[in-house]
Backbone:
């Protein structure tokens, strides 16, 4: 698996979490699994953002053809962080949570469309498979260290 394939998988996972949370606005109150799903969404987005910002984006900033796309992507990450911070203060069954979640969905869909439609094809062209494979190895290490840390916290 190369870096682009890994990042696309993350995009799909994040959208699945959002879809689950969109059904959380019923009258029955907050289901603990809704909060768990939000926590998974937040963790997935934070890890994905970190992998892009520490591994993928620095490489892509080195190419004049993608430098401006990367600057825009950083701004989009900031917006996602801001929306996640807002969501963290609300319950998934609240109407305001659902409104902010819709805004988050729109922001992520826009980000994914730009990355998958423009940036990733450029990355394949500019980096080549070997570089993309190396980035994937670095990202997998980040994912694995996050999983190990989470497992250790659960055991305490």
Residues:
């Amino acid at each position: 698996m190369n870096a682009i394939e890994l990042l696309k998988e993350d995009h799909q996972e994040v959208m699945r979490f959002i879809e689950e949370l969109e059904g959380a606005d019923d009258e029955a109150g907050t289901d603990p699994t809704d909060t768990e799903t939000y926590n998974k969404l937040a963790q997935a987005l934070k890890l994905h953002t970190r992998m892009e910002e520490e591994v993928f984006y620095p490489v892509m900033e080195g190419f004049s053809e993608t430098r401006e796309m990367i600057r825009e992507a950083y701004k989009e990450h900031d917006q996602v962080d801001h929306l996640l911070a807002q969501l963290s203060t609300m319950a998934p069954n609240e109407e305001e949570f659902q409104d902010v979640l819709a805004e988050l969905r729109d922001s992520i869909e826009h980000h994914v469309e730009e990355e998958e439609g423009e940036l990733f094809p450029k990355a394949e062209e500019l980096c080549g498979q070997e570089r993309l494979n190396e980035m994937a190895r670095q990202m997998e290490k980040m994912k694995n260290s996050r999983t190990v840390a989470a497992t250790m916290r659960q055991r305490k």
